[in-house]
């Protein structure tokens, strides 16, 4: 496809790859942090071309037939997991070229395309893709996991808002390399309100956004409560593995197994992709402690207690 024909070009920097988004119309982008110039992206990262077409433009493209599981269900308005939207057209030509025709392209991008591409490119770079928020403290990272609506974003927002030596590393997507360096992907933060979802830039929550790759010091599984109880428990790796594979590992959490099957095109290659994710998860939780935190993060005493816990974890690491 001739990229010179497109009037509007934006860049989405996902740290391990960049998406070049091209269209001939303005589109809503409330859930995404976009750059207007490719110079802001790492020149060494691979680039995926994403073409946003109008229905007229799509009709002019010959021999575009949907074939994969995701491409077919998107036509009915079912995107991924619990995400639904307008009936749309999606064609993944390959992992470097994707076509979309949708009245809500932004929702399709952040709910499907970004999750899919991060999972695929993380695997290619021997990284684990997690649904996890993360913050940096003491030159280390603390990964924040949990169920949907469990308070991950609130946890990071609250601590980084109170303590000036804590920085936001990621609010949804976190990548972990074989040496347990955490790599954040920062997007706009979705706030759930009675009037509907609102998207705000992370710098409005905390001016300090970490661009480092700090080694993981601990994994927190967060369950926010509004009562007086405060439960902090260290979790054994096998118990942690069972929950994290389903709620934090990308394939299980975002129901990407069909996408990986279509990408692999082979029974054994598909199994290999799944095994690599499992192996990376086991390696992470066997080398990094996991803690279950059932508590009210808005409570000042709880915030102090969690900071003390983080200090103790860092002290144990320093002691060797």
Task: Annotate the secondary structure layout.
Layout: E1 8-13, E2 18-23, E3 47-52, H1 55-59, H2 69-74, E4 78-80, E5 83-84, E6 89-94, E7 97-101, H3 105-124, E8 128-131, E9 133-137, E10 140-145, H4 152-162, E11 166-170, E12 173-176, E13 182-185, E14 189-193, E15 196-200, E16 215-224, E17 231-235, H5 237-247, H6 250-253, H7 257-264, H8 267-287, E18 290-295, H9 300-319
Parallel strand pairs: 2-3, 3-7, 10-16, 16-18
Antiparallel strand pairs: 1-2, 4-5, 6-7, 8-12, 9-10, 9-11, 12-13, 14-15, 17-18
Explain the overall architecture.
- The protein has helices spanning 55-59, 69-74, 105-124, 152-162, 237-247, 250-253, 257-264, 267-287, 300-319, and strands at 8-13, 18-23, 47-52, 78-80, 83-84, 89-94, 97-101, 128-131, 133-137, 140-145, 166-170, 173-176, 182-185, 189-193, 196-200, 215-224, 231-235, 290-295.
- The chain has 2 domains: 3-124, no CATH class; 128-319, Rossmann fold.
- By secondary structure, the chain is α+β, with helices and mostly antiparallel strands.
- α5 crosses α8 (267-287) and α7 crosses α8 (267-287).
């Amino acid at each position: 496809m001739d990229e010179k024909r497109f009037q509007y070009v934006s860049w989405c920097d996902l740290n391990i790859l960049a998406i070049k988004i091209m269209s001939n119309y303005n589109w809503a982008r409330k859930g995404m942090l976009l750059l207007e110039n490719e110079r802001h992206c790492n020149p060494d990262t691979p680039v995926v071309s994403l073409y946003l077409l109008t229905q007229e433009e799509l009709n002019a493209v010959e021999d575009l037939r949907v074939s994969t599981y995701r491409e077919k269900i998107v036509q009915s308005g079912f995107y991924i997991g619990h995400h639904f939207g307008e009936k749309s057209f999606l064609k993944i030509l390959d992992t470097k070229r994707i076509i979309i025709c949708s009245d809500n392209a932004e929702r399709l991008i952040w709910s499907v395309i970004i999750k899919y591409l991060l999972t695929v490119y993380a695997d290619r770079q021997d990284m684990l893709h997690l649904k996890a928020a993360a913050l940096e403290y003491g030159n280390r990272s603390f990964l924040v996991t949990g169920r949907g609506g469990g308070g991950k974003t609130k946890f990071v927002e609250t601590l980084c808002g109170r303590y000036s030596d804590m920085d936001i590393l990621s609010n949804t997507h976190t990548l972990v390399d074989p040496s347990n360096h955490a790599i954040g992907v920062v997007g706009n933060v979705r706030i759930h309100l009675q009037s509907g979802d609102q998207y705000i830039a992370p710098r409005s929550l905390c001016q300090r956004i970490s661009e480092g790759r700090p080694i993981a010091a601990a994994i927190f599984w967060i369950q926010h409560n509004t009562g007086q109880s405060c439960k902090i428990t260290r979790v054994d790796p096998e118990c942690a593995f069972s929950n994290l594979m389903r709620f934090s590992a990308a394939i299980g959490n975002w129901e990407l197994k069909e996408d990986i099957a279509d990408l692999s095109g082979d029974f054994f290659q598909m199994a290999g992709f799944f095994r690599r994710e499992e192996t990376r998860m086991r390696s992470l939780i066997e080398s990094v402690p996991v803690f279950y935190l059932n508590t009210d993060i808005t409570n000042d005493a709880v915030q102090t207690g969690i900071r003390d816990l983080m200090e103790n974890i860092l002290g144990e690491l320093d002691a060797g």
